């Protein structure tokens, strides 16, 4: 049986220490998972359970060791950066206990949840989905995966983003409201998680706009950094 159109390529991520690739299935993103960021977005982190949205897998932009051009998307005048640690799953299931959830993690990477903030804010006011704000092409820059077998499970360490050399976001992984294990457990109550799924685990405070011609450097302690030139 032949496909009626050419099969689209599957997004894959490079893996540190090997030429093997990690195929991506779904991309889940948690919202407001650092208390200071929740407050800057007008929410009360002490009262909210976690919530999630999704990006298309082909909205990821794979970034290597060299600076990479990042396209400024259409239909926005307020394009925001959000640096995040990303967890990649090699296992899955439903109703996964938090106590064993990390057994399903293959590795971790530096990522960015780039956001057309003006479109997201408009969607919030109109009680509409966030897709136009969150799912633009190339809106998920991500670096290579660092396998758990090499680095373990990062639970603390600096997470930062700079624009033109000035630090704009600075936090610590230990400041997450919901841990990676808790996020996996929560998601698995609503979805059948499977190998290839990614979870963008939240961003610290300091999110803000970036302009064409500016350079962003996103870093997570132990996972290196990725550099993007906005064009």
Automatic annotation (TrEMBL):
The keyword Metal-binding applies. Keywords: Hydrolase, Metal-binding. Residues 27-230 form the Fumarylacetoacetase-like C-terminal domain. The keyword Zinc does not apply. SUPFAM superfamilies: FAH. Its EC number is 3.7.1.20. Transmembrane segments: none annotated. One of its GO terms (molecular function) is fumarylpyruvate hydrolase activity. PANTHER family: ACYLPYRUVASE (PTHR11820), FLUTATHIONE S-TRANSFERASE (PTHR11820:SF90). This is Fumarylpyruvate hydrolase. It comes from Methylobacterium aerolatum.
